[in-house]
Predict the 3D structure of the following.
Amino acid sequence: MDTLDIVQYSESFNEIELQYGRYNFNQARYDYMLMSKFLKWFDEYQPNCHNQQHSRVVKVLNAFPDVMMLYRKSIYQKLLESKDSTIIEILFRLPPLNESTLPLSSLLDASNYANVTRNWYNMATSMIMQIYSIGRNREEIEKDFTTRSDLIREKKFSFQTIRETIQIFLKGVIVTHSEENSEKLIFYLCLLTFQNLTRDDILELKDDYMKLIPHVYKYSSSSRIKSISFTGLDRKSERIESNLSIAKRYSHRVQSQQPNYLYYLIQYYGMDIIEKESEIFYLDWKSKPKDHSEYTTLFTFAQYMIDSQYIRDNLQVLYNYFWLAIESNFGNYIYYLNIWGNYIERYGIVQPKYFDNLRDFLIDKRKIIITNSLHPTLYEFYNSLLSANTQYTISNFKQIVTEYANKPYNFMVYLNQLLMKPTILQAIKTSDNSKQLYKEIKDVGSMSPVHYCYLLEFFMAYKKVYEYPKMIPKFIDAINSNKKWLIKDESFFAPILRFYSLIKIKNPNEANQLFEKTIRSFIKVLESCKNSTVKLDIIYPYLNDINEITYLFKLTKQILNDSDQYIEIFKHFIDLDQIDQKYIQENLDAVVEMGFKYNNYNHISRTLKILDGLNRYTNLDSQILKLTNQFLRWSGNATIISNLLSSLLDISSGYEGFVDSLLSIYFSTINISHVVYYINTFDSIHQKVFYKNSSPIDIFQQDIIRIHNQLVRGIINKWNLVDLPLQSIQIILMYFKPLKSLETLLQDKILKQFKSFDITSKKCILRYIKKNEIRVLEYLNDFNLTGFTFDHYKIEQNINNQTPYVQNLIIQKFVSFIARDKSTKPSDNLLLSLVSKLFFKSVCLTFQHYKIKLPQKLPDKYQLSRGMWSFMSLGCYHLNYKDLERFHYQDVEDIFYQISSLTIQNPMTYLVEREMSNLTHLKIEIRFEMSLSCILQMVEHCFKLQSFQLSVSSIPLNSIIITLIDNIIQKLITNNTSTLNQLNFGYSVFYITSVDLIEPMEAIFEQITNHQISNPTTFKNQISLNFITDNSYERVNFPNLVSIRSLTTSCTHLILQNYYDNILNQLKPNLFLNLRSIFIQIDYQLSLDIAHFIMSPEIELESLTILCYPNLNTIDYQRVSHQILEVLKKPKLQKVKIILYAEQLLPEHINPIFSVANQNHTIKSIKIYKYGFNKHVSGHFKNYYEVYKSPCVSDDHQFTFGDFHPINNYHFIKY
């Protein structure tokens, strides 16, 4: 495919004409260089001038969906504010922009010039929600929005912001009918804005807010009761499960507690105004055609206005609409019945016809009598209906009771609910047939203890208290029943506990037995179901003496694993002063003893959480002191442990046990990693206690000194610092910093250990002491004591003395050295440039002349500038092709044509049109075959290339592609004969799918070889053969290496990654006679085939790179380590890189490697890296993190020069 399939390039007019078809343009739009030409058209655009420029802009917008780029290049807002209806309509059809910095007013004003679309509404809603930054669940906020302080912003909303938000809502809700967005905005406006406005603004916005009232009824969350039905379940097991589901849904549902979206409207504007506006809404509603959503709106209106006098005066008409909604089967009839049920409970049936109609609806249409899997609301509504017509209910009492009795046991919940309706209970007691009615209930209760238990509330209401003890045997067995359909919720436990409270004084024995069974059952339910509606509040009113409380604590220790629940229980009784300090301590001692008894992590973690939760309410020193010597073993709870230690009244004495736990670690050279782990664990807790801002206490200075004295004395007496890695030593050195002096004996021991370090380590230690101002250890830099000194001041003083006379060139070299060091952060460059104008210019020169990576963490929505105060004001030496997107489209061509080093990894469709006069280094990874045409065009304009790297490992090869590559290489060598000194070419063995491709590939290699022969001393090449298998196709279609012998013979670098046996079997040394380097990945072991291949005398290997995945602490690594050591003995091997998958490298991991490498005298350098990125990477391994080099030096301060401060405009001083 040629680039001209996408664009027609006219050299005479230097412009690009769009081809029809969005697909092609979408391919081109990923190349920002090409897109910059299109973007320049927007600068020529004039609103509402329908000329060629206008037509071009319309074409681009219709074909270009990347609104984010338009926004970041300051084009989107310009077009949005253009008042050009044609352009704005296109913008509204584009995907919505998710960007909160765009002014709402611009979006709102633009809607006056074009039809509002769903995308416009989506974008506006998204922007509004970002202003508040609410990421929490709406339903959670609805529960307690009036009391939550976290909903109050630091800065109040502006009057204008809320007015614009309301206007956007009103426009969007009318035009787009987007329920999701409308629900979000009505939630936002009604629940989250009032607490963030001044009272004056709220009153000023009254008319605006009043316009929301009709929409509150339509879009508030009040109608979220789902219409769920489990019908058609015939098998017994499924019927039981559906019964369980129904009962659970009943137990989870809280009636009449829907969020009040009118709360703030009523609070600030008064109920009278709200009712008046609601009346207007109702009259308007009646005059419009009805659909299911409109009926839902009516019922929500009815729910909010249930206490209104206007409603009471119009019940008949309202009930007529209610029945029309039910009869027509519109919408969510479950929600309708829920609201109508509330009305019936309050106002009755109004007309007898409604009773008959609704009863027929429930029994005949919904079949609630013969179906056991309907929504709970249907049964609740049926009970409301029956309680409103007591005459019918009493007349048909036996039939109704029998219908419930024939259902599964848990349906007794609904029967009890019906019987406890005041009208029904009163009717039963006063009926002439009262005894027979009671007998009907009694017969149902006698069917099983569970039946009786569910109906206990009714029997208690019907009988005298003195008769209660005789009732206990009839239901007590139900308390511990484990039947799966038995739902134990508040309606189950509350009657039993009330029953207990009424009999416990006169019948203590029976009451005690009932109490213990009930509390045990309750705690088991609490433990077994996190989301249960069973709450501790149910039992608190019935725990009034110390014996009851003691029994509760006993069970919670035995059964309850939820630490939060346990803390809640303790806090409740502490707040009520129902338990004294002695009682608290005894129970907590028992908790600690049980928690640590079995050495189980979960038990211990629970215990620590309990202590942490209670330490603000009671003194826990006794319990904490018992545990300090064990804290170090439970590092997963570091924050909790630091909180507990910080809470000690006498931290110095309490901290001793924690310090002793560190010093008790067995120290030897064979378990250094074990010691390092505990040092890091101890320090993470120690830092939280003493140095973090979140520490809850201020520790006295004498306590800090006493603790650190104990700590350093113990470490120096018991451990040998020489055996620890530098990072651990630095941690320990910081423990000396709070000290004012050291004992003579301790000084001598430190001095003795310091003398044992090598010179490099001594320098690192002294530098660390100096940098962190550890005064008590500065004596270690005394030559008379140690025989060694490291003069920090010499370099500093020389610079300070000579600074006013230092030539600019020296300062520029000095700054450049710092700025381009890999350890220098972007923020360091910024600080450096702020020293003086000369320093700033020096940083800019570094960007102009050296390869410096752009800060990838900087959000790409921020453009990079070329202005006078930009680091790139003088130019940019190196860029990735994709990084060009970070520049303004007006600047990008100038930047592109002046860069010296370029890496291309993204599709390139831009045609280079003039000489790239500075380009000396070009690295290309082809992932899109069309890019090759553009690369050829680019190479034709390059005449100073020194290095060139081309990888086509990611695309299948064919004759056309190979011809293009051949042309690229030919043009490269022709144009850059005198300058080219390095050429790397890589391809995948899996894409040599035909023998016909071998000869064209040989022609490419012949060109490279001829140039090598012509320039034997100045030119080097590397031909990489890639054996990376990423999919089954590649594994199956691996070619026969013998058939491509000419290609393998040309290979100088081999990459083996994710390889398989069918590859290893073909690796023969005589096929790779020119091989000089290998990259190999090892997962679990180094294959013997590969080991023999590497060690073969026919392979004259110079460079070896090994990526090793086995965890360093496993036996896999020990096996792989031995295999690696063997291949390091390869004769003539010069360079070695080893990448280890590890969180931390210790001397015990790397010393064996250095030991073997030192025996191979041809090895000139060896580097060991640690690797912490995703294992599954395709292509070449790039994310290295250097840890050690040979010679083994680990000094992360070698490029740290401190903070620089200006003394005038041109010079610097360091202090």
About this structure: The first helix runs from residue 22 to 28. Residues 3-222+259-281 form one domain. Residues 1-24, 227-256, 1173-1215 have pLDDT under 50 and may be disordered. The longest strand covers residues 1020-1028.
